[in-house]
Specification:
The protein is mostly helical. It is 37% helix and 0% strand. The protein has two helices and no strands.
């Protein structure tokens, strides 16, 4: 009799395990099908074409070409933020203020 009860519980466990595997595969398949359907693709909505303003035929369509090309001129060298010591003695002011005392580190000692 004990063998029959063990066999029955084994069958029930196997049946439950199989049902769980089938349910997991079904859920995975449904999820994959939902991801692959084209109804989830989003399309950008185009705006309506712009209507011209009155008198647009007489106005230029594009602004005139700018006089500068946007490149840095090569004949003017860049200047440093702090002038040389001899220039400071002559009265030149530095472009940047001196660093605050708390941000200045102590000098490194030689070994």
């Amino acid at each position: 009799m004990a063998r029959d009860g063990t066999q029955r519980s084994y069958r029930n466990d196997l049946l439950r395990a199989g049902a769980m595997v089938v349910a997991g595969l079904a859920i995975s398949g449904i999820s994959a099908a939902e991801l692959l359907t084209p109804r989830h693709q989003q399309w950008a909505q185009a705006t309506q074409p712009l209507q011209s303003t009155p008198g647009a035929e007489s106005k230029p369509s594009a602004p005139a070409e700018p006089a500068t090309t946007g490149t840095r001129p090569g004949d003017v060298p860049p200047e440093p933020a702090r002038p040389k010591p001899e220039a400071q003695k002559a009265g030149a002011e530095p472009a940047l203020p001196p660093a605050p005392a708390e941000k200045t580190a102590a000098p490194i000692k030689d070994r």
